[in-house]
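Reply to dn_fold:

You asked what the input looked like. This is it:
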Amino acid sequence: MTPHEELLAAEAARAEGNEGKARVCARRAAGYAIRTYYRHSKGSAWTGSALQQLKTLRDDAAQPESLRAAAQRLTTQVNHDHAMPFQEDVLADA
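and this is what came back:
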């Protein structure tokens, strides 16, 4: 899937009430963009899963705080009630 298709799948999953799937699709969409950025800046050998890519961006002090915060929210695990500890929209973060 392309990043655009992942975001469409995320929106469809949310409309169906499947927030977990929406979150996974949002992570994958963001991962595509992050991978493209790091491949251009660090070389074509840069790889990793979407979660690894998000963690790399989250921990990259050279990146703007807004991007690092969005990556932090996208890597935050749900609590025992399957709820997020913040109100931001992870689809918008992606």
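The two ends are 15 Å apart (CA to CA).
Hope that clears it up.
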